Amino acid sequence: MAKGDKDKSDKTPSKKVSLLAKPSNASGGGKGKKKKWSKGKVKDKTTNSVYFDQEALDKLLNEIPAKTKLITPSVLYDKLNINVSLARHALADLEARGVLKAVGDLHHAQKIYTRATQAEA
């Protein structure tokens, strides 16, 4: 015999599977266990204020225009823990006072502001 040829008598006879025979796990057509859905991740609800307290008002008037270049309602929402509607009103008030100026095209949902420099004011 050559090297590549194997003796076929060494193999054990294979078991023939009948198509009519029931499978060993004949419990329901291969579905297995029913999928359990997860409850999902629950985000903690933040308690943002709907009115300015003195601390947040001082921070709005002093720190936000001085230290922040890009000012949006979302930035005020994060830094001052206030509602976005209150942040929009505060930004409109600061723009009317001349502390901030609007940048770019005005968008109905997200207005972008920057601090007004002394030469522009």
Automatic annotation (TrEMBL):
Compositional bias annotation for Basic and acidic residues: 1-13
InterPro entries for the chain: Ribosomal_eS25
Residue stretches of biased makeup (Basic residues): 31-40
A Pfam short name: Ribosomal_S25
Keyword field contains NAD: no
Gene3D superfamilies, alphabetized: 3.30.63.20
Keywords: Ribonucleoprotein, Ribosomal protein
Region: Disordered, residue numbers: 1-44
Gene Ontology, cellular component aspect: ribonucleoprotein complex; ribosome
Similarity comment: family membership: Belongs to the eukaryotic ribosomal protein eS25 family.
UniProt xrefs under PANTHER family: 40S RIBOSOMAL PROTEIN S25
Protein name (database record): 40S ribosomal protein S25
Organism: Blepharisma stoltei
